[in-house]
Amino acid sequence: MLKAFLIFWSLLIGVSSAQGAKKVIHMVTFSAPPFMSEDLPEQGAGVYAFREIFRKANYELKVTFAPYLRAKRLVLQEDRYAGFFPVSLFNHIPSELKMSKIIYQTPWVLAERKDKVINWQNPKDLVPFKIGTVTGYDIAPSFKDLYKSNKLKLEFTSSDELNLLKLATKRVDLIFIEAGMFQFLTKTSPKLKEYREALQVNKKIVQMDRYGLAFKKSPQYLKYLETFNQIAQEEEFNNLIQTYFRRYAVPF
User: How many Å apart are CA 89 and CA 52, to the nearest integer?
Assistant: First the structure.
């Protein structure tokens, strides 16, 4: 009798554990501090916010970091990856992926040196200047025609930090960068410390980028996408970002 009871109890515990077990969602991203970074607590503010949202649906978010171009390829090459983030309405999204609802908005800007302020109204005004960008970043839609016609002088580098360093040392006249990354890197990067007061964001923004994440178009991963769209709210995501900044004293 006791043996039968113990068997029944162990089976009951097993079923309960299986029902309560979290489903793991494994996604790919790239380094873009303070939002995604292996060097920051909880892998950055954006990863923290996504993880907290998925937790509501009993999903555990795991993240693999890779350089930007490799990250976009990696998610399609390996079955274990459900998707990629962040993606923007203005980015090229592979046809194998489907974008979620918009969850975050931020300005995409030009950074400049304070001793060389550049006034511009349309992209053609920037043809005379050399502009830095990160390899793999999509060209803003308003600049694509100039770039395709070889009229836009772009210099590519491997990271936003190095891009800012090239700007500070006068190797380029301007750089494309997300506004939050500019603030974070200029305040925290040891390489940029001596140039901190020399750089600023140009007063005219390039565009407002609207971000979400993207899942593969398989039934399993589209179910994750549907769940995310149901439970995620832009206001909550922004509140989680701000909570992260306060908790970890992130300069922003």
Answer: 23
Beta strand 97-99 pairing with 199-201: unpaired
The secondary structure of the chain in percent helix, strand, coil, rounded to multiples of 5, reads 45, 25, 30
Does residue 11 have a pLDDT over 50? no
Q: What pLDDT was estimated at residue 191?
A: 95
pTM recorded for the entire structure: 0.85
3-state DSSP of 26-47: EEEECCECCCECCCCHHHCHHH
What CA–CA distance (Å, rounded) separates 35 from 66? 15
Per DSSP, helices labelled H in the chain are 2-20, 45-55, 68-77, 141-148, 160-168, 179-188, 219-231, 234-247
pLDDT in tens, 160-217: 999 999 999 999 999 999 999 999 999 999 999 999 999 999 999 999 999 999 999 9
Dig out the tokens for 5 from the structure.
């009871």
CA–CA gap between residue 249 and residue 121 (Å, rounded):
37
**Residue from 191, 204, 187 nearest 110 by CA:** 204
| Whole-number Å distance between alpha carbons of 83 and 119 | 39
Rounded to an integer, the average pLDDT of 73-87 is 94
Question: Dihedrals φ, ψ of 37, to 5°?
Answer: -165, 135
